[in-house]
Amino acid sequence: MTTPPDTAEACRRALLEAQAHPPPQRRDLRPVVEQLERLQPADLDRDRALLRGVWELFWSSSSQPWLREVAWLENLQVLDPEAGRAMNLLRLRGPLGGLAAISVVAAIAVQGRQRVSVRFERGGWIGPSLGDWRPELLARVQQATPAWLDITVLDQELRLCRGNAGTLFALRRRPDLRPEDLLPAA
């Protein structure tokens, strides 16, 4: 695509349609992301409740393998801003996803109309729920510098954001997953 669509709805459609293609076939979505950021800027003062949920990464400008989309891996971000909790979760697609997963748990706080501060606390493995018990092998994380996300577009289905290192992320809500089912015990 040489020029991005000129309406917010056309940009949203283009992004969500691109999500349906396997990662290697996706084009660079940066122009569409940047256009939608201009046309439909997020306002967390108004839409903070929309942050809560499980979001799956479908495009990233990063070259880091853990910040990119891969066909065989779910790259999830679990957000519960009212509880001040979040988690990044990488897990295999399919039935073994709950067994082969790596997570980083964080404390988050909304700070203004678009910024969410992130303080990584623990990382490691969180196993599947076994009744009321869930095995965890998490170690403390030493975060050297402050981290944050600027939520640039937010609606019921789509979230675009920029990380403190400048990476662009496009995520789609996963209505089939709930934060309380994935977040570890506080």
Which regions are unreliable across 5 or more consecutive residues at pLDDT < 50? Answer: none
Span between N and C termini? 45 Å
> Which series of helices and strands comes N to C?
HHHEEEEEEEEEH
Beta-strand proportion? 35-45%
The secondary structure category is alpha+beta
Main-sheet strand order equals: 1-2-3-4-5-7-8-9
**Helix run count:** 4
Q: Please tell me the overall pLDDT.
A: 89
Number of strands: 9
Can you summarize the main beta sheet? 8 strands, antiparallel, barrel
- The coarse overall form would be globular
Radius of gyration: 16 Å
Helical content (DSSP H or I, runs of 4+): 10-25%
Summarize this structure briefly.
16% of the residues lie in helices and 39% in strands. The chain has helices spanning 8-19, 30-39, 44-47, 179-182, and strands at residues 53-60, 73-80, 85-92, 101-111, 115-126, 136-140, 147-154, 158-163, 168-173.
Describe the structure.
- The chain has 186 residues and is an alpha+beta fold.
- The protein is built from four helices and nine strands, in the order αααβββββββββα.
- It has helices spanning 8-19, 30-39, 44-47, 179-182, and strands at 53-60, 73-80, 85-92, 101-111, 115-126, 136-140, 147-154, 158-163, 168-173.
- It has an eight-stranded antiparallel β-barrel.
- β3 and β4 (101-111) form a beta hairpin.
- α1 (8-19) packs antiparallel against α2 (30-39).
- The relative contact order is 0.19.
